[in-house]
Amino acid sequence: MRAEVFRAIDGLQLPAEHRTLLRPGEAENDADGNVHHLPRFFYEVASWQQAHEIRLAPHFKLAELMTVDCHEAELLLHEFPHYVPCAIILLARFLEDFRREVDAPVFVSANGGYRSPAHQIGGAKSIHAWGTAADIYRVGDTFLDDTKSIERYGAIAVSLSPAVLVRPFGSGAGKTDDHLHLDLGFLTLTPRQCSETT
Ligand SMILES: [Zn+2]
């Protein structure tokens, strides 16, 4: 990954339209009532071509972790540059570890990586808005759509780091039955050249 093609920016410096949708650094309550600050620093992605070219880890391209559909806000879906939280590079590293452990390709669903706080699924209350969560629908030839497969691969993900949470199998709130949700917590990353002054 070449630093010069992947520019880190301070979300507070973005135009108002983008700030309204991305809400850099703003506080938000999660489903349990805990307050977290949304990501402030983003990598600027110039085009889909660039997203497909940038490998965040040997087996994970940036594009795989930022694919969204019409559930995303119009501006963020259709106009470049796109902005992804800097912590997404750590998610990719974790997925690479996971891939190595399961020894098979790992597939992240559309809307299953980074989603902005303006995205219709979960919005700012979803940890996907931190760029630290992935919804995996398939590992190798196995589709993760039953108790056995979700529990099996969930246990492997959890075994790799105490930071990891996986959602249990089920159809109620906080559960999943057609993918494995894993996340690293409300992690944010400040690139060393960025200043956190307001
Ligand atoms: Zn998820």
Count of helical stretches:
5
Distinct ligands = zinc ion
* Average predicted confidence as pLDDT: 95
Biggest sheet features = 5 strands, antiparallel
Number of strands: 12
Instruction: Give start-end ranges of low-pLDDT stretches.
Output: none
Distance between the termini: 29 Å
In helices, the fraction of residues equals 10-25%
Rg for CA atoms = 16 Å
Dominant shape: globular
Along the chain, the helix and strand elements come as EHEEEHEEHEHEEEHEE
The structure class reads: alpha+beta
Compact overview of the structure:
This protein is of the alpha+beta class and 198 residues long. The chain has five helices and twelve strands.
List strands and helices in order, with pairings.
Blueprint: E1 7-10, H1 16-22, E2 27-29, E3 35-37, E4 41-45, H2 48-53, E5 55-57, E6 60-61, H3 74-78, E7 82-85, H4 88-102, E8 106-108, E9 133-139, E10 142-143, H5 147-160, E11 165-166, E12 180-183
Antiparallel strand pairs: 1-4, 2-3, 4-7, 5-6, 8-9, 9-10, 9-12, 11-12
Helix pairs in contact: 4-5
Zinc ion (ZN) is lined by residues 128, 133, 135, 181.
Can you walk through the features of this model?
The chain has 198 residues and is α+β, with helices and mostly antiparallel strands. The chain has helices at 16-22, 48-53, 74-78, 88-102, 147-160; strands at residues 7-10, 27-29, 35-37, 41-45, 55-57, 60-61, 82-85, 106-108, 133-139, 142-143, 165-166, 180-183. Strands 8, 9, 10, 11 and 12 form a 5-stranded antiparallel beta sheet that branches. Strands 1-4-7 form a 3-stranded antiparallel beta sheet. The longest helix is centred in the middle third of the chain and has 15 residues, at 88-102. The protein is globular. Zinc ion is lined by residues 128, 133, 135, 181. Zinc ion binds at residues 128, 133, 135, 181.
